Request: fold
Amino acid sequence: MTAHTATPHAAARDMEAPGVRIRDLTVVYKTPAGELPAVRGVDLTLAPGTITGVVGESGSGKSTLALSLLNAVQPPGRIAAGSVEIDGLGDVLTLRGEDLRRARGREVGYVFQAAQNSLNPLKTIGKQLLDLGRSHDVEDPRALVRDARDLLARMGMDGARVLDSYQHELSGGMRQRVGIMLALVLNAKVVVLDEPTTALDMITQATILRIIREVHEERALTTLVITHDVGAVAEVADDLAVMYGGRVVEHGPVTEVLGDARHPYTRGLIRAIPRLTGDLSLARALPGRPPTLGTLPAQGCVFRERCERRMDICETDDPAAVTHDGRTVACHATGRPLELVGREELV
Amino acid sequence: MITGTGISKTFRQRGGVLGAREVPALRDVDFAVERGGAVSFIGESGSGKTTLGRIIAGLETHDAGEIVIDGVPMSSLSHRRRQPYFRRVQLIHQDPYSALNPTRTIHQALEAPLALRARQTGRPRSWIDSRAQELLSMVGIDPGYVLPRYPHQLSGGMRQRVVIARALTMDPEVLVADEAVSMIDVSLRLGILALLKDLRERLGVGVLFITHDIATARYIGDDGELYVLYRGQVVERGATEKIIADPVHPYTQSLLSAIPVLHGLERPGAERVVPKEPQGEGRLGGCLFVPRCPFSTERCEQETPVLGRDGGPGQDTEQEQACFHPRRRSVIPVGVGE
Reply:
């Protein structure tokens, strides 16, 4: 790969977006009670050129999963098992030192949670951009600045002015766009956005989601969006993965998962979303509370304590993720292929 | 009952490149919160909605206008004499993590205000503990579990319920809930909203709900009223269900259009409004929304629209808007099955 491509769009058209395959990933955190899994046995495939949304509440393991894509889990956390294969890069979890540092930024771009607060308040955006370029041995800083300006302009901002600004001079929505620019300016083809719309106003959120979608398509990216907000994912993603207690409990095309949710947690979550339309009396919060590392059951299904479909087997056996017709569900009660289940059970 | 008439507030910013700058936070806002009522203020950051909540709770002064609590105009009272009135208004913050002192148990957090209340109402000290248990049960948590614990041992949802219980120690007439669910896990939000609705019905407490997410306003009661704030001005108001179903101000329509569509369950509205990126502050004298409005005309740049029913759907529904060109547009999602 050349040191820097001046015309990323032209390059993007010639290149295939990479696929990402997460296999049997387990990440544990060291606690006084021993090592506890924040992510356990997760399989997740990001098809090339798609946007996958990962939805989960606090403690679901979604941010830990995202960090694993960069092999950037920090102590007391540790990737205990599994692989993260990215086309053209190999297994990220085996990369070390210089190879890993290069991969972060050049291959995998990361927009951190609350990008509003992840910028350096003492340096202009332009200075931080040049720091980024230097740390990645960019040979032509001018081309880097030009690309950054183009990207910012593409997202509806005055690039030159933004590069001269300090973070406090930018609004939340502008900082989020700066975060996206910094993640993409080295031409990463896999992009991870962690809570990209949290703390943004509704209209700004809609703008950011539209930008994510457009930039994703123009640059032929494979994108992972991590969020607690089902709505944000519904608006932007092709595929939706639902996480609970460190497990992916449901995964499939977003319209199918929302329109015909199979896992009791997904159904409960959808019922719990405040919506503009629909019968108020049908909406209700999920009983109980999301688990934490300390309250996760040692065996059986992670969701059983809040589940309305709980059975005896859920106490002892963790349901395997079963994939059928592009839908993956991990549930003893509803995860069987459709033809084996009475239709009335799904209502 | 609490009413506000002509509430205005301007912040003066010192320093900066341009020297002192005046930022109007609220412009001539009228409102009323009845006993057991539900009033929602919707707006983006900078709309003045948080400032309004703080003014109503007596935590912020205003430059013009009058707040009347139970028939008593606050301007007629000294600062000290106002305090008992403002105690009838309790503010619930967005962040239940910082609202509770981390070094105190929930028992201690409730004991202090209840001791004050006991002195005020001539109740014995033994009342304090039983009242604490009663309030925690009322907000839907187990007193035996929660009382001896520290805030960090509770989930966000539980903490917010404790904050609400603490607000209830003062027997308030109105709860001002400022983004009270935005930091709560999604699966638990409806529980907090349902609790606010329940407190309205059971205690007759009024709720003034401040949020950027219109959809949540429906869940504190479909009998509620909605005010849409833009840069300190009320640009549309009316019954919550009416405003959501039939908005006519382009800003309200922009807010509703921005709410994500749950593809698979919903289809987007046919006429979603995307506002322009704001370029500058707009001209003095014209409509405040002109810099972002896709439908503005020359008149909008010259004259300032005031809240009224002219041209809107409000001839027989009380709905009002501050717009020269009110027009119905179908902006909200439609259920796939409908």
User: Anything to note?
Assistant: The first helix of chain A runs from residue 8 to 14. Chain A has two domains: 20-107+188-341, 119-187.
